[in-house]
Specification:
Blueprint (H helix, E strand, L loop, with lengths): L2 H27 L5 H12 L14 H28 L1 H21 L9 H23 L14 H36 L2 H5 L50 E6 L5 E4 H6 L3 E8 L10 E10 H8 L7 E6 L4 E5 H4 L6 E6 L2 E2 L9 E3 L13 E7 L22 E6 L5 E2 L2 E10 L5 E8 L5 E2 L1 E2 L9 E9 L2 E11 L21 E7 L1
Parallel strand pairs: 1-10, 12-19
Antiparallel strand pairs: 1-2, 3-4, 4-7, 5-6, 5-10, 7-8, 7-9, 11-13, 13-17, 14-15, 14-18, 16-17, 18-19
Helix pairs in contact: 1-3, 1-5, 1-6, 2-3, 2-4, 3-4, 4-5, 5-6
This protein binds the ligand Nc1nc2c(c(=O)[nH]1)N[C@H]1C(S)=C(S)[C@@H](COP(=O)(O)O)O[C@H]1N2 and molybdenum atom.
């Protein structure tokens, strides 16, 4: 193995030590302060607006893994370079690792949910990396005649071979220790996490009777009417799930109000609670996509709290801010018009799952999630649309975004085959807060036929539908369109999700034999 390759590997392992040690330190300062997560977070927030397809409001779990692995690979290349550069001058390594530590520290401290102590993981990690690199490079040096060409007395080739083995052995041990520190740090962080506090939460009972789910809400072949928490789509910009302890949680309502309010978790739970089914949809949902789910939310109506805060005239925007600094803005008029806009604490009979906003999030029927459904919410600020752009607005998405009427075919799936004869076509349709009046199905270029609508709990949820089609042999295209209560039919024109929600009719191809 060449000297420069050994030095490069030593650099990579030293970087691993930096990350592993940082993860351990971050057990004390919060997982969001680890350098990889902190730098990744800064990247997420600063992706240039034209790169519309990167993540966008769909920043799903896969994008996060890709981003973190990408950052780790870049870091690995940088560290390899530092190792090689250290062969020329040790100072290069110190400066190189110092820059890495500084970038991590500055990124961490700049995050909303990280304090000054958040610099420690990067600083301590970088310091450890410097010592480790120094040690490994010394070992590597001994495994080679000096670069000047003079053979050190008493070291024959066998001696060098021994030194090389020793270098490789130490490299392996240090790499294993670094990986162990990283994994151990992650594990300890998860044990400290609020999932423990969540298990101790006893949710208050809802006032009044729970909404009645009429029998027959479920169409055969459509997704379940109520989405299980474990199946509920998850979208957010958070690289590590924010850990908000109910014991220290506060919600501040301030800005353009006559009476600023601050309430604690205990006080929130004493407020009147209601239970409502509301279907939440992501603006990034493509036609036919699955970034939509329906759950039973337990929460207190936000209208009453806003009324108490008493917004000033002109405060047309309610900005919600999460513990990690994400923001969304909804029209004040919508949150006060009497709909079931809830500050929610429960989801399908459990405290909110941590990934879905524990301990408190907002849910607003009829608005896309990115303008209304702040998870890990800690602040509400009354302002004007003209004065403040929430997170996704400068990134090319509309400031106001009511949910568009949409429908989806769940069965048969695209590309499925069915025997000729009666085929049940089924799915869901939604126009939250307006309600679905009609769903129609078209096969090939035939006439639109009205599907059977299942009953529904309210206009705030999706509605299931089904239609029996007498399918003749051959390949067919089956299409669906919905009409809302106002009589407006979903438009055929295909538009992408940006800037305010996709349009077009969902269709599937079915082979009939
Ligand atoms: N704090 C925070 N809340 C957030 C987001 C976010 O990135 N951060 N994303 C929003 C978006 S775009 C959607 S669609 C919904 C998704 O909620 P869910 O993950 O519970 O399905 O959360 C909203 N609330
Ligand atoms: Mo979204």
């Amino acid at each position: 193995m060449r000297v420069s390759v050994r030095a490069g590997l030593a650099g990579v392992v030293a970087a691993g030590v930096a990350l592993g040690v940082a993860e351990l330190v971050a057990v004390g300062t919060g997982a969001a302060s680890g350098p990889l997560v902190a730098v990744g977070g800064v990247v997420v927030d600063h992706v240039p607006a034209p790169v519309k397809d990167f993540g966008i409001a769909v920043f799903g779990v896969h994008d996060k893994t890709a981003l973190l692995s990408g950052t780790a690979i870049l870091l690995g290349l940088y560290a390899y370079g530092i190792g090689v550069a250290a062969l020329r001058r040790w100072a290069f390594a110190v400066v190189g690792i110092g820059v890495f530590g500084l970038v991590g520290a500055v990124a961490a401290v700049s995050r909303d949910d990280v304090g000054l102590a958040g610099a420690l993981p990067s600083v301590i990690g970088a310091t450890a990396a410097i010592f480790v690199l120094r040690h490994l490079l010394r070992l590597s040096e001994r495994a080679e005649p000096s670069t000047a060409g003079s053979v050190v007395a008493g070291h024959d080739e066998g001696g060098y071979a021994y030194q090389r083995r020793r270098f490789l052995k130490d490299l392996g041990i240090v790499a294993a220790v670094a990986a162990g520190a990283g994994a151990g740090g992650r594990w300890l962080s998860s044990r400290r996490a609020v999932s423990v506090a969540r298990q101790e939460v006893a949710l208050p009972a809802a006032q009044g009777s729970a909404p009645v789910v009429p029998s027959g809400v479920q169409a055969q072949g459509a997704v379940p009417y109520v989405t299980a928490n474990s199946d509920f789509y998850r979208i957010d910009t958070a690289l590590v799930t924010p850990q908000v302890d109910p014991a220290t949680w506060r919600l501040r309502i301030h800005g353009m109000v006559r009476n600023p309010i601050e309430i604690t978790w205990e006080e929130l739970l004493k407020r009147p609670m209601v239970e409502r089914y509301v279907t939440l949809a992501c603006v990034s949902n493509e036609v036919g996509g699955d970034l939509i789910g329906n759950a039973l939310w337990l929460g207190t109506p936000i209208k009453a709290l806003l009324d108490e805060a008493d917004p000033l005239p002109g405060a047309d925007q309610v900005v919600q801010r999460s513990s990690d600094g994400w923001t969304c803005g909804a029209p004040t008029s919508v949150l006060r018009d009497g709909r079931d806009a809830l500050l929610a604490v429960g989801m399908n009979g459990e405290p909110l799952p941590v990934a879905h906003g524990f301990p408190v999030r907002m849910v607003v029927p009829g608005l896309y999630g990115y303008v209304s459904a702040c998870k890990w919410i800690t602040e509400i600020e009354l302002t004007r649309f003209a004065d403040f752009d929430a997170y996704w607005v400068p990134r090319g998405w509309s400031a106001q975004a009511p949910v568009k009427t949409q429908s989806r075919i769940d069965s048969p799936r695209n590309g499925a085959t069915r025997p000729a004869g009666p085929v049940v076509v089924a799915g869901v349709a939604w126009a939250q807060h307006r309600g679905i009046a009609k769903v129609e199905v078209q096969v090939d270029s035939g006439a639109w036929e009205e599907a059977t609508l299942a009953p529904t709990v309210s206009a705030d949820t999706w509605r299931q539908w089904s239609h029996t089609w007498q399918a003749p042999a051959g390949r067919h295209v089956v299409r669906v369109r919905a009409t809302d209560i106002d009589g407006v039919t979903q438009i055929a024109n295909e538009a992408p999700p940006a800037p305010d929600g996709a349009t077009g009719w969902h269709q599937v191809e079915v082979g009939v034999e």
